[in-house]
Structures are given as C-alpha cells and as structure tokens.
Amino acid sequence: MTDAAPACPDCASEFSYERGDLLVCSMCGHEWSPSAEAAADAAPVIRDAVGNVLADGDTVTVIKDLKVKGSSSGIKVGTKVRNIRLVNGVGDHDIDCKVDGVGPMQLKSSVVKKA
Ligand SMILES: [Zn+2]
Questions:
Q1: How far is the CA of 41 from the centre of ligand 1 (A)?
Q2: What element of type H or E holds 104?
Q3: Which residues neighbour ligand 1 (ion) by CB within 5 Å?
Q4: Can you give 45-86 as a three-state secondary structure string?
Q5: Residue 109: what are its φ and ψ, rounded to 5°?
Q6: Cα(40) to centroid of ligand 1, in Å?
Q7: Of 1-5, 21-25, 60-64, which gets the smallest average pLDDT?
Q8: What is the Å distance from ligand 1's center to 7 Cα?
Q9: pLDDT at residue 1 greater than cutoff 50
Q10: Residue 44 clears pLDDT 80, i.e. is over it
C-alpha cells in the first residue's frame, strides 16, 4: 500500500489517493478503478476438462458422448464446436455455442477440451 500511486489516466498527475475501491486524482478530481485488469481477473475463469482457460471465440472438442434433449443422435466424442461464448448459463452450463447438426445449445466446460 506504500507503492507510488498510479498516475491519473485523465491528466497523468501522480497525486492520486485511494477512496474505497477507487482512486481519486487530487489534481482534476477524476475517479477510476485502480486497474481494469484487476477487475477482469476477478471475473470467473472458465477452464476446460484439462485446465486450459477458455475464451470467447475458442474452438473446443467434446470429450464425451452427450445426450441432447430433442435429438436422437446427441453429441459424439470428438465433435468440434466452433466459436464458443462463455456464459453464466443454466446449472453448470457455462458455454453457449452452436453445434453442427444439433443446433444452438449450452455445454459444460467440464466436457470439452480446447482444440
Ligand atoms: Zn487527474
């Protein structure tokens, strides 16, 4: 906490001080969050079955047969799913995607592996 205060992103002044979770510039009054990156780090990280961190737009491979409601075939092991989107889905489902031949659906990150 004794580190030099970060410069104000607005006027580059170093005379900033902490107020709660924010930093406040005493020169121009600008208030900002200490680090946008820190905020991003705080977001839940979604990992695949082997621990790779997943991101929006990733391509993943399904690692086990999945039954799909309303589909007789379901999703087979090895099915590639392109352009996933990370979501706070229903239950443990944290991937929103469209599976070829099956359609839009949500998957659990525990059943996929980053391709
Ligand atoms: Zn400032």
A1: 25
A2: strand 103-108
A3: 8, 10-11, 13, 25, 27-28, 30
A4: CCECCCCCECCCCCCEEECCCEEECCEEEEECCCCEECCCEE
A5: -65, -20
A6: 23
A7: 1-5
A8: 8
A9: no
A10: no
Amino acid at 19: R
The answer to whether residue 2 scores a pLDDT higher than 60 is no
Show contacts of 101-108: CB within 8 Å, 24+ apart: 101/73, 102/68, 102/71, 102/73, 102/74, 102/75, 103/71, 105/68, 107/62, 107/66, 107/81
Q: Which range has highest mean pLDDT (9-13, 16-20, 44-48, 56-60)?
A: 56-60
Residue partners of 99: CB distance under 8 A and separation at least 6: 75, 79, 81, 105
Mean pLDDT within 105-109:
94
d(CA 87, CA 70): 22
